[in-house]
């Protein structure tokens, strides 16, 4: 269908702008930067067209709305030199990503203006220097603002009009801006063409997904169902959204100014004039409208989708108005996107195509979790420009309504991975849309018996699959796979594949599930398992399942249809497809109650995956450089990387293999250990101390002193930035074999409440994979001291009983180094006394114990040695007696009470000494004078001293030391 008018557009450089990936230890600032751009904005090469015009920029504050909802929008209009009243040009409105502003799209605006467009970039209400509150693209506010801007363009004589008051205009945007372009086309028919990128169809389905049940429009490749009225709350992504939008004044990480340096209006100084409710609203909700803030607070607190929350999300969802969109639409979606998956674009495509509007779908290897490469960026840039050229300027080639996707590869997604998809596969149509053939699906048999799946109380510990903004757990050095928790998942495998299978879209599988409560929260995913057993989770993507109405009888489970995540991935010949169904995922809200589900394949042990496949023609990349030149560069880089890896590996092996000669006598040594984060925060600084065999060491310090960070580094959970931690002379670190000699109890018991204490201990030991006879189970049970209660369910235990079982769990295998965090929490005085004796006797066998506790009196009575920390640094170390005996007060006992006045006079004559008479005797506060000097002065004066003892407790010493620090 040839267009009546055309205009050329360059997309908001959103998902198709490349950015070098941050390191695996990316900070919160990096995550927020990804969210703010909404599309991974970055500097990209500017094509020659961008320099073809002289461009003038006009700043303007545009009023919009009325009454209490009136705002001023901060805009910049970019006008090419070629646009005039005699030769008006089509216009483009650029909408930015969530948390950004007009500055986020400034370079794109100049580029588009250089192509001959009048381009309007603006900050949405609540962002940048625009006033007002965030309504999440509410049709009453943000969408109405877009119409106001179209009125502004229609009033200009250098903007081409289709009719009076109707500018020839396209809208492009990414993420938040992409949804605005869709909603704008639905509510304002003056919008002539749109190019939404990595955006949503339904905010409800995106933030409360549940991929269960039949699929509406299952003939497309990535159609994804949404269980009505329920879902699994995507808490991490939601928290990032709300965190960015709730910062007063628009600053990302706090501070006293808005995004553009504008000062934030603070509450008035006069307490009488302060509206407490308004202040609380501002601090709690930041720039969000009250109804959106309330919906978030309710969702975050309960993790439940209520009708009120759904109403707020649905009104900002294109899904509710797709039947109104007839503008030609180019949908760009990323395959590396745990926020808005391929199913969101699929739903938009189906809804708009049903109206007869031209729709083209592009998938690319990137998204909210990972940016596209430069080659991908350039190709998508030209695709979007070509789309607007055809539909707004009647120039160029007809882009058609085809489908393009990255060539499937078996590469793992995540930080540090080699990006696949440098080639693009093109198909004539998006399968299943109006006029196109339905998607082709092949069946892959999978097998496996029914399996119990435990969901722990509170959902802790939880599996780690995706980290918002960073993608799969491969970003954290987990080898391209997720971190699954033993006992919390069921797995079903195919036979090794005879030939490669290229999955393009969302596979489906039927499961049979039973739950004692009739409900279950589960997470389905599809792994690629290599011949060596290595597992890759494509895109780091999971499919949440919120199940209700389930059978409670495992022998008669309820069958459910499940749609797995939409992916583009090649499963090579010899590899295995593995369907994993787990009970936890750290990115989602999880049930508080513990339970055991039964999960099986529907129809018995055998089932089948329905796998979508798309045939198409592979396209070469758009780079103009000769491929052999690029190959040569890659080969040279590969050789350089290989040489560096070999040298580094040798160096590392030499370092790791070095064992300290006194390692067996010094079970733990910190040497110059520092832990710093990229935002500048230093949690631990130059920490050095050592612990000898047989010692019970107390680690003391106020909150924020660095104790927990030090323990986590010791246990290999995080790596130090500098320095070395050695355990029995071997370097400690994630996965270090020497960690098998360490037992720990840190941050919660992690016990399964439905199991007995004894079964919890057995389950924990079985997960280590070590022989049962090495557990020393009976010795550990004796430590717990629970008698017959050891065989009762843990849910009937008191907090103190749970604590004792957890400590016994840490002692399984009788580790040579025992690390305990707050071991006496929840214990009554007799139990504390018994625990004290257990730890002392344990160390007396030649083993070593590290205890972190806030109960200083218990540290004083339990520990032989102490390390005191404050502000990340060690401020004192020594025996308890040495720490207590440094300075402070002494109690002076006199053989003759008649000497009291003379003794007081002698002591007060010493520098810094004050004396007080008490019922216990004469108390001298020594400040600047040592105890030895004070005693010597009394003896020299002829005062008969009967007793001279320190009067300070560990608590006094601790407070004095921390105060001095």
TrEMBL record:
<dbReference type="GO" id="GO:0005524">
    <property type="term" value="F:ATP binding"/>
</dbReference>
<dbReference type="Pfam" id="PF00005">
    <property type="entry name" value="ABC_tran"/>
</dbReference>
<keyword id="KW-0812">Transmembrane</keyword>
<keyword id="KW-0067">ATP-binding</keyword>
<dbReference type="InterPro" id="IPR027417">
    <property type="entry name" value="P-loop_NTPase"/>
</dbReference>
<feature type="domain" description="ABC transporter">
    <location>
        <begin position="668"/>
        <end position="896"/>
    </location>
</feature>
<keyword id="KW-0813">Transport</keyword>
<dbReference type="InterPro" id="IPR029058">
    <property type="entry name" value="AB_hydrolase_fold"/>
</dbReference>
<dbReference type="InterPro" id="IPR003439">
    <property type="entry name" value="ABC_transporter-like_ATP-bd"/>
</dbReference>
<dbReference type="Pfam" id="PF08530">
    <property type="entry name" value="PepX_C"/>
</dbReference>
<dbReference type="Pfam" id="PF02129">
    <property type="entry name" value="Peptidase_S15"/>
</dbReference>
<dbReference type="GO" id="GO:0008239">
    <property type="term" value="F:dipeptidyl-peptidase activity"/>
</dbReference>
<feature type="transmembrane region" description="Helical">
    <location>
        <begin position="627"/>
        <end position="648"/>
    </location>
</feature>
<dbReference type="InterPro" id="IPR000383">
    <property type="entry name" value="Xaa-Pro-like_dom"/>
</dbReference>
<keyword id="KW-1133">Transmembrane helix</keyword>
<dbReference type="GO" id="GO:0016887">
    <property type="term" value="F:ATP hydrolysis activity"/>
</dbReference>
<protein>
    <submittedName>
        <fullName>ABC-2 type transport system ATP-binding protein</fullName>
    </submittedName>
</protein>
<dbReference type="InterPro" id="IPR008979">
    <property type="entry name" value="Galactose-bd-like_sf"/>
</dbReference>
<feature type="region of interest" description="Disordered">
    <location>
        <begin position="1"/>
        <end position="20"/>
    </location>
</feature>
<keyword id="KW-0378">Hydrolase</keyword>
<dbReference type="InterPro" id="IPR013736">
    <property type="entry name" value="Xaa-Pro_dipept_C"/>
</dbReference>
<keyword id="KW-0547">Nucleotide-binding</keyword>
<dbReference type="InterPro" id="IPR003593">
    <property type="entry name" value="AAA+_ATPase"/>
</dbReference>
<feature type="compositionally biased region" description="Low complexity">
    <location>
        <begin position="1"/>
        <end position="15"/>
    </location>
</feature>
<comment type="similarity">
    <text>Belongs to the ABC transporter superfamily.</text>
</comment>
<keyword id="KW-0472">Membrane</keyword>
<dbReference type="InterPro" id="IPR017871">
    <property type="entry name" value="ABC_transporter-like_CS"/>
</dbReference>
């Amino acid at each position: 269908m040839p267009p009546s008018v055309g205009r050329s557009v360059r997309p908001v450089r959103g998902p198709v702008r490349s950015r070098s990936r941050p390191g695996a230890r990316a900070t919160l600032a990096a995550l927020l930067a990804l969210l703010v751009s909404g599309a991974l904005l970055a500097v990209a090469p500017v094509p020659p067209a961008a320099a073809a015009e002289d461009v003038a920029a006009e700043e303007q504050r545009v009023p919009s709305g009325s009454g209490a909802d009136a705002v001023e929008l901060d805009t910049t209009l970019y006008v090419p030199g070629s646009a005039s009243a005699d030769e008006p040009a089509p216009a483009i409105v650029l909408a930015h990503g969530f948390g950004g502003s007009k500055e986020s799209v400034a370079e794109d605006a100049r580029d588009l203006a250089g192509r001959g467009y009048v381009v309007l970039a603006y900050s949405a209400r609540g962002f940048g220097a625009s006033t007002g509150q965030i309504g999440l693209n509410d049709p009453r506010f943000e969408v109405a603002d877009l119409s106001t801007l179209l009125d502004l363009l229609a009033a200009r004589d250098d903007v081409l009009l289709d009719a009076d008051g109707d500018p020839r205009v396209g809208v492009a945007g990414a993420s938040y801006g992409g949804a605005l372009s869709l909603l704008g086309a639905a509510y304002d028919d003056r919008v002539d063409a749109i190019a939404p990128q990595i955006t949503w169809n339904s905010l409800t389905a995106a933030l409360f997904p549940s991929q269960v049940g039949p699929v509406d429009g299952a003939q497309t490749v990535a159609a994804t169902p949404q269980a009505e009225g329920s879902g699994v709350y995507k808490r991490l992504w939601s928290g990032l959204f709300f965190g960015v939008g709730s910062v007063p004044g628009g600053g990302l990480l706090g501070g006293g100014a808005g995004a553009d340096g504008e000062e934030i209006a603070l509450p008035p100084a006069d307490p009488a004039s302060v509206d407490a409710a308004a202040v609380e609203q501002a601090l709690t909700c930041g720039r969000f409208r009250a109804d959106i803030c309330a919906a978030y607070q309710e969702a975050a607190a309960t993790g439940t989708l209520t009708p009120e929350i759904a109403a707020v999300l649905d009104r900002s969802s294109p899904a509710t108005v797709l039947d109104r969109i007839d503008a030609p639409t180019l949908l760009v979606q990323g395959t590396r996107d745990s926020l808005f998956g391929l199913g969101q674009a699929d739903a938009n495509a189906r809804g708009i195509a049903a109206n007869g509007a031209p729709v083209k779908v592009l998938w690319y290897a990137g998204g909210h979790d990972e940016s596209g490469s430069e080659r991908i960026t350039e190709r998508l840039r030209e695709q979007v420009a070509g789309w607007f050229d055809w539909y707004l300027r009647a120039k160029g080639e007809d882009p058609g309504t085809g489908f393009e996707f990255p060539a499937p590869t078996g590469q793992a997604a995540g930080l540090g991975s080699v990006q696949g998809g440098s080639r693009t596969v093109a198909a004539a149509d998006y399968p299943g849309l109006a006029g196109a053939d339905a998607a082709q699906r092949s069946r892959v048999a999978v097998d496996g018996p029914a399996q119990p799946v435990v969901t722990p109380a509170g959902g802790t510990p939880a599996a780690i699959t995706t980290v918002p903004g960073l993608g799969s757990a491969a970003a954290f050095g987990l080898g391209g796979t997720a971190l699954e928790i033993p006992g919390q998942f069921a797995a079903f495998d195919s036979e090794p594949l005879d030939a490669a299978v290229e999955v393009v879209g969302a596979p489906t599988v039927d499961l049979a599930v039973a739950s004692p409560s009739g409900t279950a929260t589960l997470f389905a995913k599809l792994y690629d398992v290599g011949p060596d057993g290595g597992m890759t989770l494509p895109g780091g993507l999971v499919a949440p399942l919120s199940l209700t109405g389930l059978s409670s009888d495992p022998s008669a489970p309820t069958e459910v249809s499940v749609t797995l995540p939409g992916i583009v991935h090649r499963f090579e010949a010899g590899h295995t497809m593995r369907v994993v169904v787990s009970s936890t995922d750290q990115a989602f809200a999880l049930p508080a109650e513990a339970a055991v589900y039964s999960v099986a394949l529907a129809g018995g042990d055998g089932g089948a995956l329905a796998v979508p496949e798309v045939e198409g023609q592979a396209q070469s990349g758009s780079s103009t450089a000769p491929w052999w030149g690029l190959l040569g560069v890659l080969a040279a880089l590969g050789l350089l990387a290989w040489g560096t890896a070999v040298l580094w590996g040798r160096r590392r092996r030499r370092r790791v293999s070095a064992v300290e000669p006194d390692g067996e006598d010094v079970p733990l040594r910190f040497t110059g250990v520092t832990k710093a984060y990229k935002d500048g925060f230093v949690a631990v600084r130059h920490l050095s101390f050592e612990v000898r065999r047989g010692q019970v060491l107390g680690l003391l310090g106020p909150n924020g002193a660095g104790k927990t960070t030090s323990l986590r580094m010791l246990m290999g959970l995080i790596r130090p930035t500098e320095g070395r931690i050695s355990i029995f002379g071997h370097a400690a670190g994630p996965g270090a074999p020497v960690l098998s000699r360490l037992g720990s109890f840190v941050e919660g018991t992690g016990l399964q409440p439905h199991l007995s204490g004894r079964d919890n201990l057995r389950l924990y030991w079985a997960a280590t994979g070590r022989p049962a006879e090495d557990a020393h189970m009976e010795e550990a049970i004796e430590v717990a001291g629970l008698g017959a209660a050891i065989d009762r369910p843990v849910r009937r235990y008191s907090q103190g009983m749970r604590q004792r079982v957890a400590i016994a769990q840490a002692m399984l295998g009788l580790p040579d180094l025992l690390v305990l965090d707050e071991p006496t929490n929840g214990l009554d005085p007799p139990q504390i006394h018994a625990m004290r004796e257990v730890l002392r006797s344990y160390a007396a066998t030649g083993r070593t114990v590290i205890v972190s506790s806030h109960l200083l009196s218990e540290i004083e009575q339990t520990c032989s040695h102490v390390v005191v920390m404050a502000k990340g640094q060690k401020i004192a170390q020594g025996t308890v007696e040495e720490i207590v005996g440094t300075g402070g007060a002494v109690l002076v006992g006199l053989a003759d009470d008649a000497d009291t006045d003379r003794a007081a006079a002698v002591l007060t004559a010493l520098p810094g000494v004050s004396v007080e008479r008490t019922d216990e005797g004469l108390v001298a506060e020594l400040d600047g004078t040592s105890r030895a000097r004070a005693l010597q002065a009394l003896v020299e004066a002829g005062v008969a001293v009967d007793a001279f003892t320190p009067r300070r407790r560990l608590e006094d010493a601790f407070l004095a030391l921390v105060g001095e620090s």
